């Protein structure tokens, strides 16, 4: 009998495991007790009660031996740490910006740039909101305006660049409020709230041309820019042979500056920064960081943290690393699609987003279907995801009523270099099990709501 030929060769992660961290196995009864005590909010669960933690990829990644060895070289001087200068050199080399201010994490950099650039009454157009970014813009007196393409709000639409800005929406806003009322255009890539969707280089160039026409600046949330560069490389004509590093540099060349949460692409547990070519903004940020974070040469970080960040920048542009990272997400997504589990398409770069509206059509949106689904998955298997829907969207600041987003999602985010394919399979099987008995899942009632970013601390009870 003739041997069958391989249809497709398998791939494996481009690393091997050197150290392991034991994780606690729990029973369903224990998980039911834990989620009830947490008010059905996965953010309020104790980490030790979680089996597979897909809450976020922020600060939960596994550092390499190269990064860990660098931690031993931390220069913990209060001023002028050598690690700061090494990190600054790598920011200039890989992102292309002359000026750099470290912060303890990304939202601190968002805070600085919002305080510096936004005046009360300003409008900030962006390719869909992100929770902390939007809040900092609002606290500075601005109003965020979503100018992303309509396809981004359609979970089943397979547009390859759903993070693109709608040029007509953007120009309409500029004409309506005037360019002086727009301190900057805020872009992010990939767009987290849309399901990890990238923008194209073609769209970025068109946005830059329009911005130049009206004299408006552009700033980028470059937190996961490596993933956006990867999608440009594999999806956009003319970029197949370009390196990830070259694409990142080209993206950044269109912006006056960036802010970054280093806890994602740079694969560290803490850290962030602001980088720009605008010397005035740099000087203001360097002055303000002393008030809120620490001296401008450490920004709330230890020297060892900055060393790990600098080395993480070098590793993040490695094609094999980003290919494997996105490959894990694609594997997970395709398995779910085989069982007709409703997810956001195309498959994103850092997470799978379950479409809770289609998953639980019997639960009204004001009964928090995504929150209920995240809690149910945890109870089934100990897998922790998070809500990205009506709870995350918050309330209208004028009316006080819930904002009802088109996307009601559960995000399952894989930290870099942490979990294996077996963990993905366990998660997949849990979601299939929950989907099979989805009609028995009930909605939730919010019983505690904090003033800001309610999804972090809100509490619920079952209806």
Topology, please?
Blueprint: H1 28-37, E1 52-53, H2 65-71, H3 82-95, E2 99-103, H4 106-117, E3 123-126, H5 131-139, E4 143-146, H6 167-177, E5 185-188, H7 201-214, E6 218-221, H8 225-235, H9 244-252, E7 257-261, E8 272-276, H10 279-292, H11 303-316, H12 319-338, E9 351-355, H13 356-359, H14 369-381, E10 383-384, E11 386-388, H15 390-393, E12 409-413, H16 421-436, E13 444-448, E14 459-462
Parallel strand pairs: 1-10, 3-4, 5-6, 6-7
Antiparallel strand pairs: 2-8, 7-8, 9-12, 11-12, 13-14
Helix pairs in contact: 1-14, 2-11, 3-11, 4-5, 4-10, 8-9, 12-16, 14-16
List its traits.
39% helix; single chain; 2 domains; Aspartate Aminotransferase, domain 1; 3-stranded antiparallel β-sheet; 5-stranded mixed β-sheet; alpha/beta; 463 residues; 16 helices; Aspartate Aminotransferase, domain 2
